[in-house]
Amino acid sequence: MKQAKWMVAVALVVLSGMAMAAAQLDSSYKIVAQVPFEFVVADKIVPAGQCVVQVAPMDDNTLMIHNWGAMVALFSPASRTEGRQGASQYALVFNHYGDRYFLTGIKIGGSKITYRVPESKGESELRAQNASGTQEIVLASLK
Fold first, then answer.
1. Most CB within 10 Å of its CB: which of 26, 40, 112, 129?
2. pLDDT truncated to tens, each residue of the chain (143 aa)?
3. What is the pTM assigned to this prediction?
4. Residue 3: inside a domain
5. Is residue 106 part of a domain?
6. Structural domain count of the chain
7. Does any domain span residue 20?
8. Residue 132 lies in a domain
9. Nearest by Cα to 79 from 100, 105, 97
């Protein structure tokens, strides 16, 4: 009987942790990453450093992006998509062309949800010129 109670308690703790990990990103969640390069989002430059991303409280389709050390804060439209496979960790996803980086998405750890950021004008121009790019992923954590 005691062992059954322990099993129920452990199961509840595990399930609540899984639910928390699978929950969509909302304004109370902050994803924090140390980005080692400056990047472009919403046609604005964000300097290298600690970057905090969260969903804006007024709109689920808007991200707030902060780099407090550089005193930069901005809003970016975003669309929430659900992929086939879940992300194992929180991450910021960038497209990299030469020495320029463009934020393209935010992966939500333990979830199939990804927030996609629209392509900026600068990235559109590089793609129109057939510039070859790679994808860079910067791991993040939930704060």
1. 40
2. 555 444 444 444 333 444 444 344 556 689 999 999 999 999 999 999 999 999 998 888 999 999 999 999 999 999 999 988 889 999 999 999 999 999 999 999 999 999 999 999 999 999 899 998 999 999 999 98
3. 0.79
4. no
5. yes
6. 1
7. no
8. yes
9. 105
